[in-house]
Design goal:
The protein is an alpha/beta fold. It contains 21 helices and 15 strands. Helix content is about 45%, strand content about 15%.
């Protein structure tokens, strides 16, 4: 497979230095992508770079994932309006281990293939490098004029940030440039890849290699992903969409992709899946015939949820979705774990009642019309129950005065009440 051609049809190339494609056709090439270790999980904003590394390995080349342990202690001014918090070594090591585990779902780190992926951390070669040595060996090769000309620096100096640009941040591009030089010298790494906002930092690295070693190195960047409406990709009301189920449940992760617009689905399915061009074109044509079936969104959500989580998590997410939007059974509801249950019914009106009340046994009509305000009156509830319009835990309530006990609770804590087809309520026993 031709790596550059593969990325181009998927819409994943923004800038590329001349000679990059020729280098990749000439021999197996080593390339790296830098990953910020400020959290112990990647989020979907990182996924483009990770997908690029995966394509790179699939095309027979060797990928390096660089954890920015040293640079993460400083913060990159590119695209930022404020300096970030600095991390201690213990936190960085923990974050690195968690990130490697996530990357292992995409990259082969463990085989003995010549292009097996490697994880490196720039803290390992920066921690013993003194400031005087850095100034003498690296600083003298790149002029301040060259550094000042970078867009990321110019934007901050022109007042985009309230507090200007600290010297610490100003040195970032030189530190990133040194990473490239170090990997060039120790791993024969000739290519750095990243988001388009990294172009200035990456080309500082190629320039440093040229000036210090007379060597030739290359750069390739991908576009920053946006939404069709101009909104920020990967952000929801509750913040980032994370790859770790600890921060974003597989159900919420699946729902994020399921709910993207048609225009975004057509772009994202090229970027975030490994489906072939023919498959994607066929899906897009099928989608245009019947957009209401959301064929592109469903396939995108399936591919990416299985890849990041598992097929089991995907099936559970689909089943959970059917509880709210389809004709799921009581069995499916009982299989939901607490986190997924709460995610599915987020935003649904909730009522808290005393657990002792339910432990003693309470009539449904008293619980739902008196101790919670699901029904305006007992008479209203009686009528609806008689008309078959009330369900509890996805089963029709046949008697308005049915006794409810702790045996009825989901996850030993919740009751799900449905009034009519679309009105859900959650009763929480506390």
């Amino acid at each position: 497979m031709n790596f550059v051609e593969e990325l181009k049809w998927r819409g994943m190339v923004h800038d590329m230095m001349p000679g990059t494609e020729e280098q990749l056709q000439k021999e197996m090439t080593t390339a790296y992508v830098g990953i910020d270790p400020t959290a112990d999980s990647l989020h979907i904003g990182h996924l483009v770079s990770v997908m690029i590394l995966r394509h790179f390995q699939r095309c027979g080349h060797k990928p390096l994932a660089l954890i920015g342990g040293a640079t993460g202690m400083i913060g990159d001014p590119s695209g930022k309006s404020a300096e970030r918090n600095l991390l201690n070594e213990e936190t960085l090591r923990h974050n690195q281990a968690c990130i490697k585990e996530q990357l292992s779902k995409f990259l082969d780190f463990d085989s003995d293939a010549p292009n097996a992926a490697e994880l490196v951390n720039n803290y390992d070669w920066m921690k013993e490098f003194t400031f005087l040595d850095f100034a003498r060996e690296i600083g003298k090769h790149i002029t301040v004029n060259y550094m000042m000309a970078k867009d990321s620096v110019k934007r901050r100096l022109n007042g985009e940030a309230r507090d200007g640009l600290s010297f610490t941040e100003f040195t970032y591009q030189l530190l990133q440039g040194y990473d490239f030089l170090h990997l060039y010298e120790t791993k024969n790494c000739k290519l750095q890849m990243g988001g388009s906002d990294q172009w200035g930092n990456i080309t500082t690295g190629t320039e440093l290699i040229r000036r210090k070693n007379g060597g030739e190195a290359f750069a390739l960047t991908c576009p920053l992903i946006t939404k069709a409406d101009g909104g920020k990709f990967g952000k929801t009301e509750s913040g980032n969409v994370w790859l770790s189920p600890k921060y974003t449940s597989p159900y919420k992760f699946y729902q994020f992709w399921l709910n993207v617009s048609d225009a975004d689905a057509e772009r994202y399915i090229k970027i975030f899946t490994f489906l072939s061009r023919e498959e994607i074109e066929a899906l897009a044509a099928e989608h245009k015939e019947a957009p209401h079936l959301r064929i592109l969104q469903k396939r995108l959500a399936k591919e990416i949820t299985c890849m990041v989580h598992s097929e089991e998590d995907y099936n559970a997410a689909v089943e959970a979705s059917n509880i709210l939007f389809g004709n799921a059974t009581a069995d499916a509801l009982h299989r939901l774990d607490e986190d997924t249950f709460l995610a599915v019914f987020e935003g649904v009106p909730q009522f808290e009642v005393s657990r002792d009340l339910i432990s003693a046994g309470v009539k449904a009509v008293d619980l739902f019309a008196e101790h919670s305000q699901i029904f305006a009156s007992k008479g209203e509830m009686r009528k609806l129950v008689q008309g078959g319009g009330v369900s509890m835990n996805k089963e029709k309530l046949t008697a308005f005065d049915q006794e409810i006990t702790t045996a009825d609770l989901l996850n030993d804590k919740y009751l799900l009440v449905q009034r009519g087809k679309k009105n859900y309520f959650v009763v929480i026993a506390k």
